[in-house]
Amino acid sequence: MRKQITALTAASAFALAGCSDLTEQEQGAIFGAGAGAIAAQAFDANLGWTVVTAAAGAAAGALIARNSQTNQCAYSDGRGGYVTRPC
User: Fold this and answer.
1) What does the pLDDT look like over 15-54, one tens digit per residue?
2) Which residues contact 71 (CB under 8 A, 6 or more apart)?
3) Taking Cα atoms as reference points, which of 87, 43, 37, 35 lies closest to residue 66?
4) What single DSSP character describes residue 46?
5) 76 phi and psi, to 5 degrees?
6) How far apart are CA 57 and CA 62, in angstroms?
7) Do residues 36 and 55 make contact, with C-beta atoms less than 8 angstroms apart?
8) Of 30, 47, 53, 69, which residue is the least packed, with the fewest Cβ within 10 Å?
9) How far is the C-alpha of 62 from the C-alpha of 68, rounded, in Å?
10) Where are the domains of the chain?
């Protein structure tokens, strides 16, 4: 198990090194997907859950990168909607 996580981490590092021409959102999505996959493997999840956590991590990573870039975050308005304001 430890060898798998080490190999996955090394592969992620090499993959991110080649991402210099990607946007910040794309880089955030790749980083988030890798983090989600590593977290799933840490809990010995099956392949289906690994894919789900990688997809969720990619979505979260892209949103965090976008919010950091634009300094705009979405907040609940208390009525089932949301409003954007500076973070």
Assistant:
1) 666 666 778 888 888 888 888 888 888 888 888 898 899 9
2) 86, 87
3) 87
4) -
5) -65, 140
6) 8
7) yes
8) 47
9) 10
10) 2-86
Please provide the size of the chain in residues.
Answer: 87
Question: Shortest CA distance to 35 belongs to which of 17, 50, 14?
Answer: 50
23's tokens: 């946007």
SS3 22: coil
* Mean pLDDT, the chain, whole residue set: 81
Q: How far out from the chain centre does Cα 57 lie? A: 3
pTM of the predicted protein model: 0.63
> CA 19, CA 83: separation in Å to the nearest integer?
32
Q: Which residue has the tokens 């304001």?
A: 85
Give the integer Cα–Cα distance in Å for 42 and 8.
11
